[in-house]
Amino acid sequence: MGRAFEYRKAAKLKRWGHMSKVFPKLGKIITMAAKEGGPDPDMNPKLRQAILNAKAENMPKDNIDAAIKRATDKNTADMVEIVYEGKGPHGVLCVVECATDNTTRTVANVRSYFNKNGGELLKTGQLEFMFSRKAVFQIEFPEGMSKDDLELELIDAGLEEIEETEDGVFAYADWTAYGTMQKALEANKVNIIKANLQRFANTPVAFDEEATESIMNFLDKVEDDDDVQAVYTNME
User: Fold this and answer.
1) Which residue of 80, 90, 99, 141 lies most exposed, with the fewest beta carbons within 10 A?
2) What percentage of the chain exceeds 90 in pLDDT?
3) Residues paired with residue 198 on neighbouring β-strands, in sequence order
4) What does the DSSP 8-state code read for residue 205?
5) What is the pLDDT of residue 7?
6) How far from each other are the two terminal CA atoms of the chain, in whole angstroms?
7) 17 or 189, which is more confident?
8) Cβ pair 3, 163 in contact under 8 A
């Protein structure tokens, strides 16, 4: 099963829940990017991509502008990105990426989700070798350019693979090549629909139907947390 399956699975949310859950999470990323590199997207590639991702999720312009404005507000608390690792129900391995202004609150909440579902948090770095981190770009081919042509243009920028699926075209690179890939795609006039860093299990594990349902219910609880940006597992 292709990497795009994981991309699609991570992106799927119920429509009404989508707005209430995803917009605040996207807003945090926009605010953090603006605070780090300035509020002008033309001069801040990280902010420019955060805005594109938000627009791809139909986030209103007013929400985007408000998130940028928060970056210059003295009353806006500083946020940090933090990663937790854990073992969930049925032994599923999880990496939980968060953006928070209160790490004490966040770790307490995340720990409770694992503990209440028969799991536990693990020491940071314990699962590092179990997952590969990749830069993932959902793109559209420029007019007149084939997949082979684009691969030749991007190979020196760190491209590993271009995958065409029913849900779109996805370009993959090692996470360290995110910046060079973004620049190369823009230089070749490739439309970037979404882009982010994702984790893929090196050895996916198959679970039976009952275990899968239990795991998915657990993941829903974790993903509902306002501080949680993404959850990755070794579930096949």
Assistant:
1) 80
2) 82
3) 134
4) B
5) 52
6) 9
7) 189
8) yes
Residue 88 has pLDDT above 90, yes or no: yes
pLDDT of residue 22: 87
Residues pairing with 135 in the sheet = 173, 197
pLDDT at 20: 59
Residues 6 or more apart whose CB falls under 8 angstroms from that of 25 comprise 99, 226, 228, 229
Rounded to whole angstroms, the Cα distance separating 137 from 200 reads 14
21 C-beta neighbours (distance < 10 Å), count: 17
**Which strand ranges, in their side-by-side order, compose the sheet holding 131-140?**
159-165, 168-174, 131-140, 191-201
- CA-to-CA distance for 65 and 27, rounded, in angstroms? 9
| Residue 77: predicted pLDDT | 84
Summarised one tens digit per residue, pLDDT across range 179-215 is 999 999 999 999 999 999 999 999 999 999 999 999 9
Residues 6+ apart with CB under 8 A from 61: none
Helix residue ranges, H only, 79-193: 103-116, 147-154, 178-187
Phi-psi region of 105 (alpha: psi -120 to 50; beta: other; left: phi over 0): alpha
Is the pTM for the entire model greater than 0.90? no
> Residues near 211 by Cβ (< 8 Å), separated by ≥ 6?
89, 90
Closest CA to 92 of 56, 119, 126, 132: 119
**């973004």: which residue's tokens?**
182
User: How far apart, in whole angstroms, are the C-alpha atoms of residue 223 and residue 113?
Assistant: 10
Closest among 123, 27, 38 to 79, alpha carbons compared = 27
